[in-house]
Amino acid sequence: MTTRTASARYDGMGRTGKGHITTQSGILTDQYYGFNTRFEDEPGTNPEELIAAAHAACFTMALSFALERAGFRDGTLETKAAVKLEQSDGGFTITRSDLVLDASVPGISPDQFAEIAAGAKANCPVSKLLNAEITLEHHLK
């Protein structure tokens, strides 16, 4: 079992508050977030961006291991994730994560690749965590 941690602090309340996120690894240390970084274009991060990064990384790693198990040892996988936050019922809900994958895997057929990629999408731990629609568009070079 592996446990990873992060912490958040929010000074002030609501729109005028200022948040800071720190991760266990230190890759993020007091990284700014707030209303303006989440709902407008102010520099800084936000929860949806961090979830998108986690989903892209998790799916891509899961796919690389699934491809290796299927006998493929070489290639490149590049995934972008777009996490959508929508207002509903007086609150907000993350409704979907759209994965777009560009891949180069020498020797794999398009059908075999599609099957392995679909399995990775369904079985990566972040996909399992999200209570949202998950789509996958993939392009095999």
CATH architecture of the largest domain: 2-Layer Sandwich
Q: How far is the N terminus from the C terminus?
A: 36 Å
Number of strands: 6
- What's the CATH topology name of the largest domain? GMP Synthetase, Chain A, domain 3
- Largest sheet, spatial ordering of strands: 1-2-3
Estimate percent helicity: 25-40%
Structural class: alpha+beta
If you compute it from the alpha carbons, what radius of gyration comes out, rounded to the nearest whole angstrom?
18 Å
CATH superfamily of the largest domain: K homology (KH) domain
Characterize the main sheet.
3 strands, antiparallel
Average predicted local confidence, pLDDT: 96
Question: Under the CATH scheme, which class of the largest domain?
Answer: Alpha Beta
Total of DSSP H or I helical runs spanning 4+ residues = 4
**Topology as a string of helices (H) and strands (E):** EEEHHEEHHE
Q: Could you tell me the strand content as a percent range?
A: 35-45%
GO molecular function: peroxidase activity
Organism: Sphingobium nicotianae
Protein name: OsmC family protein
GO biological process, one term: response to oxidative stress
